[in-house]
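## tool: complex_structure
## caller: assistant
## args:
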Amino acid sequence: MTAITKKPENPTAHLTPEDVEQLGYELDRIRQDVLDSRGERDAAYIRRVVTVQRRLELGSRAVLLFSSLPPAWVLGTVGLSVAKILENMEIGHNVMHGQWDWMRDPKIHSTTWEWDNASTADGWKHSHNEVHHTYTNIVGKDNDLGYGIMRVDEDQRWHPMHLGQPLWNFLNACFFEYGIAAYDLELGRNLSVPKEKRSEEFATNLRKTLHKIRRQATKDYVVHPALSLPTGSFLSTLAANFTANLVRNLWSHSVIMCGHFPEGVETFERKAIPANETRGEWYLRQMLGSANISGSKAMHLMTGNLSHQIEHHLFPDLPSNRYAEVAPRVQALFEKYDLNYHSAPLVAQVGSAWHRVVRLSLPNGWLATTKPSNLPQQTAVLWKMVRGGSKVRRAAQARLEQQARRQAAAA
Amino acid sequence: MKDRFTSHSHDLILSDQQTRTMSIALPSGPARVTRGAAPTSRIGLRQRLRRVAEAAVTPLEIEDVLDVFSPLRRGAELRGRIVEVRPETAEAATLVIKPGKDWAGHEPGQYVRVGVDVDGVRLWRTYSLTHGPRADRCISITVKAIPDGVVSGYLVHRARPGQMIQLGQAQGDFVLPQPVPDKLLLVTAGSGITPVIGMLRNLFSRATPADLDIVLLHSALTRDSVIFGPELRGYAARGLLRLVELHSDVHGRLDVADLDQVVPDVADRLTYACGPVGLLDALATHHEERGLPLHLERFRPATIVVPEGEGGGTLTFADGGTVEADGTTPILDAAEGAGRIMPSGCRMGICMGCVLPLKEGAVRDLRNGALTVAVPGETGPGGVPIQTCISAAAGACSIDHAG
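## result:
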């Protein structure tokens, strides 16, 4: 995908400024309707989810005390995986968004929740709530577009490192909780600064993150295995916990990829965003920059309702159990304003996201202009781009894009 | 005195949890773990076990885990389970509550902070305890539903046995001195009878009811709306006190100027009064002029809320500094404009990066006009968290932030 303003056909070109403001007004109405009806039923929902998750986690860990028995290992690992996923996604992510702050319960509040993840709540809240949700899909500002290690948009400049991005993506997926931690710390950028010049803030955040990692790792890989020593289950519990973390990492990574990476999700140029983006304009960007996953209620729960990514981006502070409810109204607005409501089943969305990762691991236009007949020459071009400096790359890139355009025009 | 200190430190822990931005496991348990002279090896083992348990449940705290199974246990945040809801009048009900094991007891006349989840929102109010300490260890409050009262309306009409509420430890110094003086004057009106009934029940429910010269001067709108009416008349019939009832529909309101007529020996009596602001202020003036001692229990004063479009208020910060804010500028902007460093994020209400505790006052959500009110001593000890980037002052406000 390329930024919306650079596309031959801008999907918002048909909207007047008045349309956009009217859209904003109608979305505000939906939000207010939810606020007006928010109450006991919603509070009961999150409390139930929290109770179920805690019982599931404790029960699974209890079962894993006997993990040397294969049935116990399987049962405990499945239970613990589900518990970790629920805690991170339906509970942690949403609580940290402030979706439940209205209850004034200090135990279920964005200012106090700490989640079962290697990254700290503070780090997550900054990079996710503040940066990602404000600058959603603006190339150059929203670091979620690739997390700094991949390119997911044509407007992100290609670098030889990107050739490996399917592998980086997979590794990131396996160890996603650490990936998030590094990402929240802006580790790459900060570590490239000489030690004496690094900011106080980074040093503090790094220390807190390392403490968090240590506590999490000690819990899963030392304490609970040790507690199962009496049944001779030390190693099997360790393996179980590692597996549960892995499952959570892979699942949450996949779901998160579905939010903004499937083909057809729009991105935006920094310079095309006005300094004082109106509420309507912000809503519009959220609508077009997000993608939903369609499926069962169970799937919605396991994705932490991020399957309703569009609704979540429109209303990040509304209780997650309400997204399914407002989705039909939101979809109706898409239709009314002739916009694309991006929604597809899980496998399709994950596949589409991975397709983008693989496609953009190569320079723009390379895939389009490569056929079996010219593969050796194209490979040579690619090799030159890898070995050459940025000037060589830019020149080769321009040539590739020109060829791709000619090819498209001729077709 | 020791109990009062315990209650204080418990509240501090609560406020820590509310305003901490990153939750770190609390150090080993409440202070009571090491009460008494326990042998060092036993303390060491307990602390070590506790640390292992903490390491096993992090980032949860052990308290969170135990809450799943036993919310009223010793060491938990103070809560209570409603055991009985007994209607007293058409608009008042007594709630008998079984408090958690850490309930430190109370003296008659004291009040308790109660946190109730009404339509999903935890709201705090204070109510007088209407029994002296009971044998069944339960406590009771008697609530009068005020018109448009969110919490009082819920407690009187919708609360059910089995429901859980949050509690604070007993507070207040509206208590009789020990030894109890022979002659007392109790002046109450409406729900002001509640702290006094606790005192009376405590005096008269003993094996030998206290033999004192008590005058109770009580005002209510009608005879039927006198809370505990039959009980009070019963005490009077038994000669335990002299009851003077004033029903506004028949007798008009109590005029403090008539006090000397109604109670000629008022100067010989220790006076305790609880009721509306007007009554208490008039009584205070009356007694001050005569140099007579007076104990008052004031119920919560109304928070001043400036109507929409009619201005804002003065913001007071934790370091004492103040900022004038109008009713249309976000508090974040107003404070930054005056040179304060304030936490912020998206500045559009979605990221919760600007949340600060409002300790007292009222603010209005600039997006939809919704009001948030904080009353000290009632709304949780840490204040009510608000988003400063989309809230404007709707009256004088006190915000817990320095710098």
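## assistant note: Confidence is low (pLDDT under 50) at residues 1-36 of chain B. The two ends of chain B are 36 Å apart (CA to CA). Handing back to user.
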